[in-house]
Amino acid sequence: MILITWTLENLLVNLLIYLIFLVIMTIFLKIAIGLFNKAKNKSFGQVFLTSFLITLIVAVFGWILPGLLGLIISLILIWLIISARHHTGFGAAILITIIALILYIIVLIILGLLLGITLFLLPF
What we know:
The protein has a domain of 69 residues. It contains four helices and no strands. Helix 1 crosses helix 4 and helix 2 packs antiparallel against helix 3.
């Protein structure tokens, strides 16, 4: 078992990393939602709140139900939140998450090529 000692410095660094991740996630989600004309609540603040709710759901279900079942429940809840908060259908919410993920991967690949580093690892 790994024992993590939480100091104020560790907590603040982790919080800063989380906020940076949240803003990056919000940007890609906002771009993907913006591609749908019927979507509402497209402002950065509204999408930021959606991103925050998504991270909470993933964290809670990743902790309570680790594994495939937790992932499936998380995805369904994420799609329900996106469809409810932005007035899209369930299918559009699925497309929004796929588009946001594809945009994220494309940007990571381009940044990796420009910087000459690997920014993520693929599981295959």
